Amino acid sequence: MEKLNFVKNGVLRLPPGFRFHPTDEELIVQYLKRKVHSFPLPASIIPEVDVCKHDPWELPGDCVQERFFFSTKEIKYPNGNRSNRATVSGYWKATGLDKQIVTSKNNQVVGMKKTLVFYRGKPPNGSRTDWIMHEYRLATPQSKHTTEGMENWVICRIFLKKRGSNVTKNDEIGIVSDCKSVESKPIFYDFMAASKHRGTDLNLKPVSSSSGSSGITDDVCSYDEHEEDSNNKDNVSNLRKNK
């Protein structure tokens, strides 16, 4: 069977209509466990990225959507188990308790999920942001046959938390400035002009919005004026005949 590869230049590129929404169990069993033991993956769909070498908005992919990455844990101290999660502009801080990931069939614990929040600045005085990361790791000790260093692999799910209705305009500007891939500029289409060339060119060309018109209103108005002039001429012609 041919291996499926949906990652190009570190960015996930799925065919139109396809979505990648794995469960916690699927991430642990089907992807992370296979990665650690060097087994074939169901598909090359999660890129390898050192997450803590980049700020969350600089990671590959569309930052408006949730993104998944294989990453490795960097130990903060030589004699400890704490991970170094400092980035260029801030750091990831763990929050709450780790959640056990259990299988749906026999409730076996197969992994753990840690929730982290991104802070700008230096600890402990960083400012909290809306960037969230779920870090998945295997729960059980790895076998002796595991390749050295492979046990440090984790899966990181990173997304921007949705805000409520009390978001200020400055907050919205800050979020959009972080997400460089967001394009909020509206596009207007001249459907009436495109209909004249129907059958020859199906690509609708955008019409500039600087004039304050979509292009549809102008065509409709010109059509109504032409029809009104035609009706007036017919009425004048009928009056002359009656005289």
UniProtKB/TrEMBL annotation:
<keyword id="KW-0238">DNA-binding</keyword>
<feature type="region of interest" description="Disordered">
    <location>
        <begin position="201"/>
        <end position="243"/>
    </location>
</feature>
<dbReference type="InterPro" id="IPR003441">
    <property type="entry name" value="NAC-dom"/>
</dbReference>
<dbReference type="InterPro" id="IPR036093">
    <property type="entry name" value="NAC_dom_sf"/>
</dbReference>
<protein>
    <recommendedName>
        <fullName>NAC domain-containing protein</fullName>
    </recommendedName>
</protein>
<dbReference type="GO" id="GO:0006355">
    <property type="term" value="P:regulation of DNA-templated transcription"/>
</dbReference>
<dbReference type="GO" id="GO:0003677">
    <property type="term" value="F:DNA binding"/>
</dbReference>
<keyword id="KW-0539">Nucleus</keyword>
<feature type="domain" description="NAC">
    <location>
        <begin position="14"/>
        <end position="161"/>
    </location>
</feature>
<dbReference type="Pfam" id="PF02365">
    <property type="entry name" value="NAM"/>
</dbReference>
<feature type="compositionally biased region" description="Polar residues">
    <location>
        <begin position="233"/>
        <end position="243"/>
    </location>
</feature>
<keyword id="KW-0804">Transcription</keyword>
<keyword id="KW-0805">Transcription regulation</keyword>
